[in-house]
Design a protein that fits this description.
Length: 129
């Protein structure tokens, strides 16, 4: 399921593959566009804003709610996980932009059982609902 250059694949609340975490700690959407990066367990977008946490196969937003899950999630608590859909064709990976200056991380809230209002791509693009 994972390719050589992939660390994990993130699925949304409906089981659709939306993000790829690469081995070099870069985060790309399924079409191959770079949208964020990892710094330890912290996730950042390319504006340098801290947007959430990725730990033990679970991606969480700044409120502690689950945004997406990986191939083998082991974090707890997590909501009921759907069946994973078939993986679509992987897009060509674009050139990575330079890493921006990282902003200060937010305080970590308690992990929530429920799903976030954001999907994994919206988390990194800064789309507010």
């Amino acid at each position: 399921m994972l390719e050589d250059n992939e660390q994990d694949i993130i699925f949304d609340r409906f089981g659709a593959a939306t993000l790829r975490f690469l081995s070099n700690d870069r985060i790309i959407d399924w079409s191959g566009k770079h949208i964020g990066f990892l710094f330890g367990v912290l996730t950042y977008n390319y504006k340098g804003e801290h947007v959430g946490w990725y730990e033990n196969g679970v991606l969480r937003d700044l409120k502690g709610a689950t945004v997406g899950f990986g191939v083998d999630p082991k974090d707890s608590p997590i909501p009921y996980l759907p069946y994973r859909q078939y993986l679509p064709y992987r897009g060509y990976i674009q050139y990575a932009p330079y890493l921006p200056h990282r902003g200060y991380p937010k305080y970590r809230p308690y992990k929530q059982y429920g799903w976030s209002e954001l999907n994994p791509v919206e988390l990194f693009l800064g789309i507010k609902k």
